[in-house]
Amino acid sequence: MSTQNTKTYFTPEELDTAEHEDLKDIYQSFTDKISDMEYPCVGAKAALNSKQIRLGLYDSMATAETTEQLGRDLKHYIAETIAAESEYMTMVAVFKDEKPATELSFEKKLWEQLQFLHNSDDSPNPWDPEVSSNPSDTNFSFSYNGTAFFVVGLHPNASRKARQTGYTAMAFNLHRQFEQLREKGVYDNMKKVIREREVAYDGAINPMLGDFGEGLEAPQYSGRQVDESWKCPFLAGKL
User: Fold this and answer.
1) Is residue 102 part of a domain?
2) Which residues, other chains included, contact 130 with Cβ-Cβ below 8 Å and sequence gap of 6+?
3) What is the DSSP letter of 92?
4) Which pTM value belongs to this model?
5) How many structural domains is the chain composed of?
6) Which domain holds residue 55?
7) At what angle do helices 103-120 and 64-84 cross, to 10 degrees?
8) Which residue in 85, 109, 92, 76 sits closest to 41, CA to CA?
9) 3-state secondary structure of 57
10) How far is CA 155 from CA 41, 82, 149, 164, in A?
């Protein structure tokens, strides 16, 4: 069944005037989290304050229907972010019917969803040429529609306070945004500020938080702490 006529992608202006209270409640739960003075991610705060958060609303993770909708919305988000030359626009994909999960089961679902997205990618060149498609490579980033992303898993049972949200979600940011911040010379200071704030907010630095461009990216997506024996379940097969 096609879902092309079902609206699932919303701007803050649309959410402010939404008729459905559940939609407003979901958005409010995320804005409350990010607007907390102690919340460490200044990038998310910048996106919120400049009305550059985009909300994707879906049922359950890793279904054919959700994958079709999410893929369509990611293409919209990519085009909107690039057109605006935005450094902070972010898309939060919320799975409203997904029950609170353990960190391990959430990690499994997150990678299933990314695998479904990749398998459904019908673009001529699905992988961004600037990054690797091998999760064991230090230059790996998930790509869709030829565009590299950094993905942040969010859910009620996350061990890191900064990733604990009332709904199960995945935040998508274009990798090019990090490069734009680097080129402006503000990335390193921003990273330093975020880490200082995270220690204050969560009691310690996130042990999985590698520097952009250093270490492995794939283990950071779900938010679960893993060791070097961890194997990413994702396989890029259509390259």
Assistant:
1) yes
2) 148, 175
3) E
4) 0.91
5) 1
6) 9-220
7) 80
8) 92
9) strand
10) 16, 28, 19, 5
CA end-to-end distance (rounded Å), the chain:
27
Closest to 59 (Cα-Cα) out of 49, 70, 51: 70
Mean pLDDT of 170-184: 75
For the stretch 86-120, pLDDT in tens is 877 899 999 999 988 899 999 999 999 999 999 99
The DSSP-derived string for 127-181 is S-TTSBS-TTSTTB-EEETTEEEEEEEE-TT-SSGGG--SSEEEEEEEHHHHHHH
Residue found by looking up tokens 């994909």 in the block:
93
Distance CA 34, CA 166 (A): 12
In order of 28, 57, 69, 173, 227, the CA distances from 108 in angstroms are 27, 20, 20, 21, 16
Residue type, 210: G
Q: CA 86, CA 47: separation in Å to the nearest integer?
A: 9
| pLDDT surpassing 60 at residue 239 | no
Q: Which two tokens stand for residue 225?
A: 């702490």
Q: What is the Cβ-side half-sphere exposure of residue 188, based on CA atoms within 13 angstroms?
A: 3
Lookup result for tokens 């391990």? 104
Domain membership flag for residue 37:
yes
**Contact call for residues 209 and 226 (beta carbons, < 8 A):** no
Q: What would the two tokens of residue 169 be? A: 């979600």
Tell me if 225 is assigned to some domain. Answer: no
The reply to whether 24 falls in a domain is: yes
